[in-house]
Amino acid sequence: MKGKVYLVGAGPGDDSLITLKGLKCIKKADVIIYDRLINNNLLKESKKNCKFIYVGKKSKKHIKTQDEINEIIYREALEGKIVVRLKGGDPYVFGRGGEEGEYLAKRNIPFEIVPGVTSAIGGLAYAGIPITHRNYASSFHVITGHLKDENDKLNWEVLASLDGTIVFLMGISNLENISKNLIENGKDKNTPVAIVSWATMPYQKVVEGNLSNIYEKAMKYNIVPPSIIVIGNVVKLRKNLNFFERKILFGETIIVTRAREQKKEFVDKLREFGATTYEFPTIKIDEITPNIELENAIENIEQYTYLLLTSVNGVNIFFKKLFSLGYDSRKLGGLKIGVIGSKTAKAMERYGIKPDFIPKEYVSEFLTKYLKNVLTTKDKVLLPRAKNSRSYLVEELSKICDVDEIKIYNTVKGTDKAEELVDFLKDKKEFYLTFTSPSTFNNFVEILGDNSQNILKRGKILSIGPVTSKVIREGGHEVYGEARKHTIEGIIDLLIKERR
Ligand code: SAH
User: Fold this and answer.
1) pTM for the complete prediction?
2) Hey, which of 14, 18, 37 would you mutate to test ligand 1's pocket, going by the most ligand atoms within 8 Å of its Cβ?
3) Which of 154, 326, 459, 495 is within CB 3.0–4.6 Å of 433 for a Cys-Cys bond?
4) Each residue's pLDDT tens digit, 105-140
């Protein structure tokens, strides 16, 4: 049986700039054949057993030849698989997607093209440069700058005479030639030029100049591939249209140390504000299984009057167990339900339940204070939560009524690679380290070992609240900022205030 191939454009870099159809293809792919510039986050969208084949090529140093790539795509499809050939930008813009399509067509392999946002247009947009504009350019021309033998093929005279915007892809190593040829063939040496490197990524870098000085400037600012060269008066619009680099956290680097299971929301928000984030989960959530105690509690839920859940992880693990036993949320119909924190409440609502009470502050003390006023000796509380939770809540509530504390998960040290973080921070002059609990800090120190002191000294440390700050100070480090609201929004507020 023959499979099907999708030649998918991944967009210019930022993973959210892929099309809906492209994302759907990734989700259903059995195998993904991808290039060097593909954003890793996109690969994470694939299904569990998806196979990955890297055919990335660095210019000049090809890892796989185009013939080999064609053959790989073909062979995978012959096995009846859904094959996604994921390419940067648009598959037909200097992506050799046409050749891959032809190869498949000749061999009767069904395929579809999923167009993508090309860097030639979308990448420029993120630098504040519209590829056309009524007042400045009524055409645009996208040209390969990968010249070598093709040098002769480009008609510089014609190129120099064009009025529209000229975009060179793969041109950065030929920048000197390109500007020289255009000037020699009559293009005004004052024509504005910009180089956009790593377009759409939070570390995007742009250098502006004109035909006569752009090479020098690119050298000075150490511009590297992938870069787009754009030549024309539209470059002038950048000063008004540069929305991206004006985002409030653009240019800031922020290390996120929360658990893999909890970091997404934080990272998404930081990215929305334009920050470069580095995820270094220091905590891992391990569900305790088997858990007969929890199963018994659910089977006999009628014996309880209150259910308290104190974290999003706790909610998710609890409901997973409830469902796996064949019940649904109605099983909890007879109980009063309380949570700590609005995040936990939201997680609960996803299962169709509105908590009866949510303390305003996100700590056990407030939950206890509230409950002390409503609980009577006749009540019985079910409290499924993390193994290493503070004993305070149980101690206090037990003074009033029966409390069944059931340990449902463990937070253990994350296993992230310390070397990679050290390497990432090597050249960074400024960065923030965020700690959202004492254990994120303690684990960070343990995972990084000898390197931790140096990194903690160089970085600006942001803490979620006093309990975490205390641990950081006891470790001998200065807390640069402490969130007033003890949530990730509180930390983001700190960062934003700093930039205002
Ligand atoms: N099909 C791709 C282009 C492939 S050629 C597209 O439509 O965008 C590869 C070249 O594209 C690189 O050498 C560089 O010039 C450009 N490019 C791709 N992504 C880029 C990015 N994020 N920033 C700057 N240039 C990029």
Assistant:
1) 0.81
2) 37
3) 459
4) 999 999 999 999 999 999 999 999 999 999 999 999
